[in-house]
Amino acid sequence: MADGPVDPDFMLYSGGFFSDADKRLMSQIRSLSATELLVALYCHEMRHDPQHPAWPERDRFVLSKGHAAPGLYAVLAECGYLPAAELMALRKLDSRLQGHPTPDAPGVEVATGALGQGLSFAVGLALAARLKGAAWRTYVLLGDGEMHEGQVWEAAMTAAKYGLERLTAICDYNHFTQTGPIEVTKPLAPLAEKWRAFGWHTLEIDGHDFRQILSAFAVARQTAGRPTMIIANTIKGKGVSFLEHAAGWHGRAPNAEQAARALEEIG
């Protein structure tokens, strides 16, 4: 565990709420829809060792939606990869915790943030595990908006071609892009049918229900001969009433009153 408890503002760390002026452009709700998914992965599903981040037999995780880095850092701190106090160094010069994750941060496998590329990297990791005869699994978290990128579907075809059964992808399906509702910008529906057509074992769950999340991971581990896509239906800005299902907050900070209200609602 961490060298001290994560601050009660943990959920706001994961959503990017900071008072420093150089953090004002952080996306305010980019992590809240994925919080339960990240917690389930690191606290229940994956094999990993915070005291030995490079443990060869660890499961690998790729945060393809790199803009959710604050949520990943908060979970890494809770697990003990870094001090909780270091979360306040987010996006500062020379900090290990930049606005998008890099391997400078302990527990981070790859730099991400150019949307659409994370699944390709995860496919490479899964192929490497097969070539090595290794038992570790690969997990990748994608945003729904990045599925507008063609590279995602190229990687999906490759994973299916090689039957990468130790690869599990999760889509944070919160139905919003940076500019507005995904149904307006470029609809993805029927999303599950698309992934099934690309040869993936596809599950649909409530991404805020731990029982459903962990059950889906268990099913993925038992799936043979093909990769698994878990479409997690989520709520953008989950837990903060004025942020839920709200556009316009991707690069906008709350004022002091809004931040206090958000902290009170999250508890």
What percentage of amino acids are in beta strands?
5-15%
Structural category = alpha/beta
- How would a textbook summarize the main sheet? 5 strands, parallel
In CATH, what is the homologous superfamily?
A: Thiamin diphosphate (ThDP)-binding fold, Pyr/PP domains
- Helix coverage percent: 25-40%
CATH C-level label: Alpha Beta
Radius of gyration, Cα only, in angstroms?
18 Å
The quaternary structure here is single chain
Number of strands: 7
What order do the helices and strands follow?
Answer: HHEHHEHEEEHHEHEH
In short, what is this structure?
This protein is α/β, with parallel strands linked by helices and 267 residues long. Helix content is 34%, strand content 12%.
What does this entry look like structurally?
By secondary structure, the chain is α/β, with parallel strands linked by helices. It has one domain (10-266): Thiamin diphosphate (ThDP)-binding fold, Pyr/PP domains (Rossmann fold). Helix content is 34%, strand content 12%. It has 9 helices and 7 strands. The protein has helices at 10-15, 35-45, 69-79, 118-132, 150-161, 182-185, 191-197, 210-222, 256-266; strands spanning 60-63, 138-143, 167-173, 176-177, 180-181, 201-206, 228-233. The strands form 2 sheets. It has a 5-stranded parallel β-sheet with strand order 1-2-3-7-6, sandwiched between helices. It has a two-stranded antiparallel ribbon with strand order 4-5. The longest helix is centred in the middle third of the chain and has 15 residues, at 118-132. The radius of gyration is 18 Å and the shape is globular. The relative contact order is 0.16. Residues 1-19 and 21-28 have low confidence and may be disordered.
